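Cross-posting from the modeling subforum.

Setting up a comparison between two proteins and wanted a second pair of eyes on the formatting. Protein 1 (sequence, then structure tokens):
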Amino acid sequence: MLGRLLVRYLRPAWPLIVAVVVFQLAQSLASLWLPTLNADIIDNGVVTGDIPYIWSTGGVMLLVSLAQVVCAVIAVYFGSRLAMGMGRDLRGDLFQRVVAFSQREVGQFGPPSLITRNTNDVQQVQMLVQVSATLMVSAPMLAIGGVILAISQDVGLSWLMAVAIPVLLIIVGLIVWRMVPAFTQMQKRIDRVNQIMREQLSGIRVVRAFVRERHERTRFESASDDVMQTGLRAGNLMALMFPAVMLVMNLSSVAVIWFGAFQVQNSGVEIGTLFAFLTYLMQILMGVMMATFMFVMIPRAAVCANRIGEVLETTPSVSAPKVAASAPAPLGRIEFDHVDFAYPGADEAVLHDLTFTIEPGTTTAVIGSTGAGKTTLVSLVPRLFDVTAGSVRVDGVDVREYDPDELWTRVGLVPQRAFLFSGSVASNLRYGDHDATDEQLWTALELAQAADFVRGMPEGLNAQIAQGGTNVSGGQRQRLAIARALVKRPEVYIFDDSFSALDLRTDAALRRALDTHLPDATRLVVAQRVSTIQHADQIVVLDHGRIVGIGRHDDLVETCETYREIVESQLAAEAAA
């Protein structure tokens, strides 16, 4: 998977790759030339006392060193551009894929894991690319070129390379092999830390209400300690690598000087040649050591690439048809035709053989006990899920045959948990219609019974909303979510238990406003309170995913036992209150 990701995202950046290769090649050639110049200075200048030769050759060495530094800086610059660009493209594709996921895929991976994959995992792959772009030419060039030039200097000492290089490779290979499981476990434990952190931030009120701060702190510390322990294991192995490499390099240096001294003593080799051979051997081992930086990062990057690939290769269960159906005239008619639905891996279906029709311009309510499948039912209309059997049709066309944008244009959804984005009141409302005027926003707020408290805010429409709407009350958040759907002005409105956070007076005023100003809109309402739905044109009563009653309030009280029990229980509760 790591190789496929690199090929896919680096192929468009071939000019940068060429630039990196060219400048690293120039840097490596300069590095390989310097030891030869150094040997010439010693043998032909220092030993003979030729001062002009020392100055001239030394000047060439300075120019070569300057060129080496310039090429290294340029290569690092282009390598950074290459890595950062790949990270940008990879994050963008991950984001686009996650946005296309249905609730099924989001639940499969989990939000904390998806966040980690789009941040930490991408960063690990990006770092590997950056390090590789810096070393991918210079490291092998120093190693291979050093071997060739070292042999050309002195064949008699070449056996030292045949010993040092395999020993170094074996040590590095064993350490990297031990690091792979640690890095695999590291990413999973980072996911766990993110999950606990998200739970604590989202549920801070519950944590404080039940005085569970100490328990949650212990949970987080435990997860954080697991990350630390795994990081220590990987870090210890990484820390072991560099001393091992330095040990091999230093022993090799001692061996070269030891055995080379005998050759110098016997006039078998010049002092400059010996130093050149030693320098080339160091460059060879340095090239291997530089490659170890990549070897250290490859295991973790490979694990991260596999996790990224899992997301990119997951096909959304809710996808656009290859050829979208022709969109009919928008009316707002909804038909459920023998609909079944089961969640993946569930033992039984949540919804069973649902068949009913919602006529344009009418209000249909869905009521039932907790877990009866009400939210699942209304989620099938905007195609948040796809039916397991049967079909859901909007204006005569199966929702699976619509272009998703066309379907969502016709449907306005106010979810059970109202969510507001960070920004102003106006920016949240314009999620419904980007081009809506301030006048249209105020009209929607009036209908949603939210205009008064928005006017009471110091900045009105420009008042800032925190992420999730945490700086407004539950009822205010719910009314702003309703206003956002009203700004969109679709043919079908779906209110998924959207009135539960409202008091009875506000609830009644909101329903009257909707009846008066949206008489032609189709409304599908999920509610727990009978008072909210008793005037609906049609009430669907669910029990364990099956329709046990359908009709108007007065008829259902007489004919449907489940509905009558709900009514009587609420009347008894009101009387007791």
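Protein 2 (same layout):
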Amino acid sequence: MYIKSTEKNSGLVDEIEGAIQGHRDGHGYVVRDDGEADIYLPPNEMRAVLHRDRVRARIVRQDRRGRPEGRVVEIIERPPHPIIGRLLHESGVWLVAPEDKRYGQDVLVPKGATGLAKAGQVVVVELTEPPSLYGQPVGRVKEVLGEVDDPGMEIEIAVRKYSVPHEFSEACIAQARSLPDKVRVQDKRKRVDLSDVPLVTIDGEDARDFDDAVYCEPAKVGRGKGWRLLVAIADVSHYVETGSAIDIDGYDRATSVYFPRRVIPMLPEKLSNGLCSLNPEVDRLCMVCDMLITADGEIHAYQFYPAVMFSHARMTYTEVAAILANTRGPEAARRKELVPHFLNLHDVYRALLKARNARGAVDFDTVETQIICDENGRIEQIVPRVRNDAHKLIEEAMLAANVCSADFIQQGEHPGLFRVHEGPTPEKIEILRQYLKAMAVGMTVSDEPTPMEFQKIALATKDRPDAQQISTMLLRSMQQAIYSPHNSGHFGLAYEAYTHFTSPIRRYPDLLVHRVIKAILLKEKYQLPALPTPGEAHEKLARRLAARAAAPTQKPKKQPVASSRELQAWEAAGLHCSANERRADEASRDVEAWLKCKYMRDHLGEEYSGVVTAATSFGIFVTLDAMYVEGLVHITELGGEYFKFDEARQELRGERTGIRYAIGSRLRVQVSRVDLDGRKIDFRLVRDDEEFMARAMKEKGVAATGREGEPAKASAKRAPRKAAGAKAPKQAVRAAKKAAAKAKSPRKTRR
């Protein structure tokens, strides 16, 4: 009997390379380098390996659903990532319990290797002996972070947990000190003087670095009326030279990382908050995108040039929105000379918005939240971020400048980084189709959908009770945006070419785009610095190039003229920036989750109303209305019956009563448990009333009788009320165990 090979182009069951991804329950996965389905590793296979290890594995069997289970053959590399955790002293033995539960094993610490650390403190431990099949890993305390309840400890943990660079090199600091404190006369040479143009910055109240300034005036465009829109962006590239110490540190970070009450900047503060920041009433160097916009919101023409500007005001979104709402109010009176310019900006925004709607850009109403902390870093409240016309005005102006930047690079036939957002994969398209059909939407998507199709579905269903659920599924079907020298367009924004130009203080790709634009203006060629010793980004690049050569997936659009080696360098830079962007997001989410868990520990036992935001085979996730905090209602808390997960409808349905829990369902829950280490919050269902059950049973046609022929009302009364703490029936427990077993089985974990 022949067994089909698990590897392409091979007649044998080959060894597969990949990275270990641990799970807090003890098992793990090998995330394959070739992008194929992850390989499940049972707990006994995880004894001698650690989360993040690079290994060679072999598939030994398939489970009942055809998913691979493997065995580790060899550990190829053990990255020198430190482990963060609490130092414990138990039965005379010192050990560190990792904060990241994906590591799965405590680290033994010899008595003389604890340093100055005390029991209970959070420490950074360095491994001195790796784990084995019959022995735990051994390490020594490298750094003491402090007590677990110290203010800001969650951030200290996150930056080390995700290996976020948080200390500038000595060379970088020395170079930053040597920079001037203000713009010098020689810096203004060969620049357009815009100091008399009333450019202003518009940002949030808590912003400290100002990347962009805007100005708008009416203008004749072609034969009609329109506007001249100026977007001035801080000229970071003037001070940060390619290959310099500041540049090396900036590339390593690739992005600023934002936490509640703290920012880890990409550039030293002297640049990010001083010399490069477009602070009010001081000269600053900038790169300008000067655009002519038609009455229909189309970009008629544009030009780029280096300039020197003088910000006439540091405005906030709240102030500008108030002025636009009432030009005779107190805010307008304080900025009387600038009011006409704000009105011009509002006019061009409405024109750009008209063009956005015409091209079918996807625009879903999603709620973003802001965590407000006290002086000790504890959450005081969580509030929704309200996007007013001032936010949207700046957003549209920045989008226009970014589009011009991408077009300028393409026309200059110069390699660079585009912000690429490809359309849904065929698999996601099929899942979305099945969902839309199951929900009787009456609309579907084509094999190669356009953003307009998504927008039409969102508009057609906006008044339905399940509109939020439909919007969520539309969003989930899309891919993640990345940086790449290969332009595939931006699906969500409906642009054929798009890049990032507007935030060089906090994003390294924007800095690269500035350098490319300057090179094109000077009719030169920008060369990326010599690549360092090949790292993770370059290894991933090699694997991606091999996969692309083996099976090209789509016809590429017009690409810049460049050598193969040069494009590979740009690809490596794009991979690096994309990976670090995700790393920053993960670190920020981890800190927010920790803060929310700590916040909810003070609300144990309290009841809140909320909405279901996700349904899974093991339960439903509910987001509270009042606090915007998400928690899990486990399937055993849903009542005394068997619930089946309907993947097409994304809902849990009771087989006996027909009760459905789907995205968008409104419930009342009680906070039952908070796991600070696991960043998890558990709810139990409070709303289990007879009316809700009777309505579901009526829809199913079994309203007259319930379990075993009893009247439905009596059956409903006998259903255990989980909010009161009753134990789940055996049937529900068996169902939960079955669902949990499925959840632990091999699955694709990276998207």
